Amino acid sequence: MGRYTGFDSRILIFSGGNKLSKFIIEGGRKLSGKIKVSSAKNAVLPVLAATLLTSGECVIEDVPELEDVNVMREVIASLGAKCGQRERKFIINSAHINSFEAPYELVRKMRASFLVMGPLLARFGKAKISMPGGCAIGSRPIDLHLKGFSALGAKINLGHGYVEASAEKLMGATIYLDFPSVGATENIMMAAVLAQGQTIIENAAKEPEIIDLANFLNSMGAKIRGAGTDIIKIEGVKELSGISYTVIPDRIEAGTYLVAGAITGSEILVENVLSEHLKPVIAKLIECGCQIFEEEDKILIIGNSNPNPVDIKTMPYPGFPTDMQAQMMAYLSLCKGTSMVIETVFENRFMHVEELKRMGARIKIEGRSAVIEGVEKLTGAPVKATDLRAGAALILAGLAAQGVTEVLNSYHVDRGYENIVEKLSSLGAKIERAE
Ligand SMILES: CC(=O)N[C@H]1[C@@H](OP(=O)(O)OP(=O)(O)OC[C@H]2O[C@@H](n3ccc(=O)[nH]c3=O)[C@H](O)[C@@H]2O)O[C@H](CO)[C@@H](O)[C@@H]1O
Ligand SMILES: C=C(OP(=O)(O)O)C(=O)O
Fold first, then answer.
1. Helix (H/G/I), strand (E/B), else coil: 202
2. pTM of the prediction?
3. 83 is catalytic
4. Which of 58, 135, 290, 335 is catalytic?
5. Which atom belonging to ligand 2 lies closest to the Cα atom of 323?
6. What is the pLDDT of residues 329-365, one digit of tens each?
7. What is the pLDDT of residues 233-256, one digit of tens each?
8. Domain ranges of the chain
9. Site to substitute for ligand 2 among 115, 116, 323, most atoms within 8 A of C-beta
10. Residues 6+ away with beta carbon under 8 Å from 150
11. Which architecture, in CATH terms, is 96-240?
12. Taking the domain 3-38+249-434, which CATH number applies?
């Protein structure tokens, strides 16, 4: 994949992965073989932010080569963290943090940059972070993060596009989240680990990445109980120490490759997976008529390229993940009958629909529902990735479509899929990257 070389005012510039770069896929081929899933993007990003909580050295093993990881590394480096790298290992030392501000130039490139607020506030009592704003999938407010920080005693000021937070000392509190937000749960958890007294997060998010972050923090010396349930209790400690850690495998990358097997009617072994994290995706693939065999850390799929119609409703974990909605919709566009997909997590996560329609899919959107009338075949076409998972969905559609599909704006996909061209090619897919 492309190497990060710098920023311009609108987009990330990568050699081999810039805005003008696209994927070209020749569809209609059967795939076979095995594919190894990388460490989870959505687990490694908060863990990198959490390394700011200690002056000790943290070693994060097997970090995936992703553009979002490059941005988070840039963010923590801009605060004064030293971030060395030995192959896939990051060695981070945050002993000499000398800035408490994450600027617009970085935060607007990746919303998860906002996750440095909790750690900065916890350790230094101050942080000034650009407001992330909306993106292609929704308006994505940060009110729940701020509600949590306020409850812990931080003073919050909003102005000129920035959130400024300060506190002499954070004090433990009970915080009820109106929605189990993943980011708010992570940010509040990171703020609370060094607060005085006990914090309770009610209606907390239960995603596996929350448990992984809690495991990381507990290994550093934090006292967190209940991560993975909707009540998380955090007993504040005085300080945390540096540790070595490897995050969980990426359940969304794994799910995407399972759909690659499903949509092409192929037999694929997906390795380095925790299948308990993929229960809702596996359940829907079985309903579609795929055969799934779960082994210890592997899943074998024998796909069904003409799936049974199924209905899907995205929900917070353990419900069906919104991050797999677009990929499943690409698959269901080939179903025999009519399927329905309801998106409850983000209000605008159907941007892939118009692009799938350009490939022959028959989909109608009504509010938060999409009604998919299965077609016999998709046909290759030039299409545009509007966000990360929309891009993945279009690649999957391209694998099944007759003829050639060009997926423009590959940089969206490079945010979250490590070596996607190499991985799919190793299964026999005809996919390449072109400028
Ligand atoms: C880096 C990362 O881990 N990203 C994931 C994380 O995003 P992220 O953490 O941004 O997602 P949230 O769980 O916070 O968002 C879920 C919903 O809550 C709303 N909300 C969130 C915060 C807030 O303060 N107020 C509010 O209203 C959002 O607008 C959205 O409608 O979880 C999402 C939901 O599983 C995934 O799709 C993203 O891939
Ligand atoms: C929506 C996603 O990421 P982010 O929250 O960083 O936009 C995603 O990973 O699908």
1. strand
2. 0.96
3. no
4. 135
5. 10
6. 999 999 999 999 999 999 999 999 999 999 999 999 9
7. 999 999 999 999 999 999 999 999
8. 3-38+249-434, 96-240
9. 323
10. 156
11. Alpha-beta prism (3.65)
12. 3.65.10.10
